[in-house]
Amino acid sequence: MTNNRLNIGIFTCHIDNDYATEVCKGAEYAAKELDCNLIVFPGMFLNASFYDPANQLYDYQYNSIFYYAHPECLDALIISVGAISSLLSEKDMNSFLSHFDGIPILTLEEKLPGYPCIRTDNSKGMRDAIEHLIKEHKRKHICFVAGKEDNTDSNLRLKIYREVLSENGLGVEDRMIIHGDFAEYCQEETAQLLDANPDADAIVFANDHMAIGGYAELKARGIRIGETMSVIGFDDSPSSVNMDPPLTTVNINSCELGFRAVYAAVRLAQTGNMKSEALDSRLINRVSCCCHLCTESDLMKDGRHLLDLDIPDIIDILDGRLFGEIADSFYASKVMSAYNRILIDIVSVIKSDIDTEYPQNKIIDELKCILESDLTDFYSVQKTAYMFRELASIFSSCKLSAAKSLQFNRLNTTITNTISLFISNQLYNTIYENKMMGWSSIYITRDTLTYGEDLGKTYTSILHKLQGLNYEGAYIYTYDDPVRITDTGSWIVPKSVFLQAFFNPNNCQVLFGESRRVPSIEIFDNEYTYYDKRFTSVIVPIFTNEDQHGVFICNTDVAHFSSIYSTSLQLGAALKYMSLLREQNITQEQLRMSLNEIHEKNELLNHLSTSDELTGIYNRRGFMERVEYYINIPSNCGMKAILLFADMDSLKVVNDKFGHKDGDFALKNIANILSQSFGPHDVIGRIGGDEFVCFAFIDDSDYVTEVQRKIKDFSAELNATCGKPYFIEMSVGVTEFVCDGEQTIEDLLSQADTALYSNKRYKRMSILK
């Protein structure tokens, strides 16, 4: 229990998803009626292979928050099985559910053994939709755009499509079916379907979002939707009524599902029992299937015209037609009651025999009250606009006097303008609010960069920004160290977490030290939380790529869910930056404490990387870097220099006859001879097995001759005193040049090498003494 109220948890899919949002709307409404708390755990698909790897690479992170559901913090748990696990086997799903033993569980969409379930019978609505095309509109060539091939819902809808066509004597060929991905970007799939079926007269989409892409392709081809082509969607998403023409679709009662689920979960928590329920899906006829807007002839009763009936009967008939799609919902009576006040005023004036004016101000005021109320959360402003469009069609088809027709048209114009102005203002406010929320989220990262190492100021600034994002409370929990989450999303929640900062109506605080530590099972209810009334909470992970830094919990309503993900991602960036700063500070401290040691090691590493291990002189890399620097530095331009190329005579013979130890002895002595023959500032290196190179600036025309004499003398002295049965000698080649910044080492080496091979003509026939 939290604040002595029941805590009802709900596992759902991504809360940016229309279906998940609608379910949460209904759940929140029921939670308000029952005065219980609602805790939303918005994960993703439990099967990570479903993700789009390019755009949703780390979405599996969201599934980690499921494991914070614990009997200590939840009285009952609703799991939207169809939304989060439609790709899992029953065995894998039962394994997942076993993590939550001790919590009474209710499933949505799919019945699993041992768990009560509330679901919608999608088959009825889909069957009605396809039969409507066949029987009402006489469609003969009906194509189908299914969802992903491994999706349970898609396969069910496709199965019903095949069955209904077969039952009505219409064949189904593979070319009449194509698979999309449930997103609105299926214009290409629709194009392929139309190319394969040039005589198609109807297309059924497995969800409304794919119908958006279908509309785009049909319009691009000049095909008139609702005239030459019938189109039907599925889900009754908020976008369906906004489409042009409004989309005929199937209402799957997602909002009602969430509403009933919370009532059932409370019953389950209190009694331990509840019966499974199945709701019907319902076909919603709009214009896209080729149905027309409603007219009086559609509403005649027993051959009597609509306006010949009594006002209560007229209102009943209008309610059935205009609000039939929501008739079974929990909010139907509230919606119809509100709009009936307007309908009664309109009908009263129309039926009046005297020249009565509409109470226009009263009607418009009542309409504005409805539009500004929470009824629009369930019956949208767009549906209201479509409802009045149908109402206008009905009364325009009635036999009204010219005066009454003019009066009604004026009223209808005012109503339309009022709705249009409200939508325009609503759009502006939404854009402005999103802009402010966007900037507030971005400022979280900006202020983290600004305050950096001052954690107090950083978290204080973050709390200030969060308070501007329609959250009634917010809690930032972190781990000791970032955690790597596998792409299964399954992991063990740490026993405790750190509450870094929080705010609620009672307090706003940044915490330090051990006072931050909170047991994980108490993150929703601890000494820092404050709830004077029921709440809706959402928990999301704070992560960057594979690293999860903690969790973010906010108290807000469903209407403001849209800012949660951007906030958590900004928090992830902020915590990542703070983590990097901590690591940087540690590193800098270590650098300060051991700067001399590191410097010495760097010097040693540099020496090792540029020195020949055997002889101690430069290796190829060291020689090249040093000489390139000398010949290209501007201050050396115009100076004379030499490059001497030397290689030991008959190293292979020494190695083969006397062993590699003697070979190494010979090479070391070659290096010593060259070092003795050149000056201390000259550059000497071993660039190959038996190859050596020397570089020196010269200001004496006899320098080369003198160097060659020294090499000869030192070699003779070595061979006279070393006691080896072979001669240690070398062939040399020299090239002279003037530094001008244009030479390359490779060219100079090539010239010296050529000279060396000329010198090899004078070497001994045998090195053996």
TrEMBL record:
It holds the Pfam family GGDEF. SMART domains: GGDEF. The keyword Transcription applies. It comes from the Bacteria. The keyword Transcription regulation applies. Coiled coil: none annotated. PROSITE patterns: GGDEF (PS50887). Residues 639-769 form the GGDEF domain. One of its GO terms (molecular function) is transcription cis-regulatory region binding. Keywords: DNA-binding, Transcription, Transcription regulation. This is GGDEF domain-containing protein.
